[in-house]
Design goal:
Length: 449
Amino acid sequence: MAKEANSFLRVVGRAGIFPGMEPARTTLGSWDDARCSRREALKLGLCGLAGAAAGLLPGCGGDRPAAAGITAGRELPDDATWDLWLRRGWAREALHWEPGNAGAACCGLCPNGCVLEPGRRGPCRVRVNRGGTLFTLAYANPCSLHADPVEKKPLFHFLPGSKSFSLATAGCIFHCLNCQNWEISQRRPEETKDATGPELRLKAPLPASLSYADMARLSLFPEDVPAIAKSLGCASIACTYSDPVAFYEYTLGIARACRTAGVKTIMVTCGSIQGKPLRELAPVLDAAHLDLKGFDEGTYRRLNSGRLQPVLDALVLLRQAGVWVEVVNLVVPGWTDQRDGIRRMCAWLAEKVGPDTPLHFSRFMPAYQLTQVAPTPLETLLQARADARAAGLRYVYIGNVRDVPDAATTVCPACHKPVVQRDLFAVTKLDVAAGRCRHCGAVLAGVWS
Ligand code: SF4
């Protein structure tokens, strides 16, 4: 045990707070699942920084925190848990809702537009109606923390080579059949946290070590995030892994605190959010990675339990608000790999969001409820990239592949020479100076310094 702790201390200084597994899977209350995910990630070569630390996890083989106050079949936490969560600040009144009839709460955060009767919980799992008031249970209680390369978001045109302090709570607006982070996205916050025991508020300077049991009772308030990001050498923070819309109040608080402190904020999202809350959030966001999961309403409904049009509206709104946006499209065989749909999506992106919008095609790997679907063939991805370029998009990438040499290379659209070369999530060559190509001087779209 002592040896494990020492190993952890070393790794804390090198790679972040919770090293040792693919960070998005650093999930409390699901240790067995997390171990499985780490194996998958290692097999796929996706571990990046964390891969070097595999096997050094604290709590390995036990120390699995219990989720307090969970009663099977109940919508809300029991009274004792509720009081504790209120005192910790993890439960607080939500933004963007209004009272309805007979104590109902009408939520205006995402396009689901839920009308929740007292005692009911939204499908996002984090918003509940208690006594006629809508509360969020996802405030200041992250279940995943890590310092990632910004390329891992992925963002290729935003402070390349920098690190981003990345965090998530449980819950998500969508319920994707192929979710890679279902261990946290498809959980209630109470399943990842345990407020019992001494309060532990994370602040800079960071403690020398944290166990999984510590993490389960840990609070991280927005005003403490910028100093932690700086202490880890991160130029930005990223609300990511599950979906920052589901933990909207926390995301907004973090973005405001970071704007004041001079730290950039990134949102990695499915983009399923109503216009009013997004207009409130966008002015304090610096960059967004948006998952455009396809270009067909029916597929969005069946594959993701969501809708396409609000996502397209969010993309346009973010762009108009001056947020740097990169788009990811996961090509799922049999679901989102139809060439016609990909072509229409690329044409829409070029016209409505702009030809300088980076588009990352991502290779599907079997996950969650789509384990029977084979990985995306390389030919499909290469064809998609060719179609995107033909549609006028200037920066097109292929992710989750190891055997396409230029898949992650940025090419200057003017002189066609490589300006940024990457190996997995590391920048290996950067020929960009003051936002311009070092070869020909052309302006390159992005936020480079
Ligand atoms: S955020 Fe969306 S899913 Fe959650 S309660 Fe509000 S409308 Fe419903």
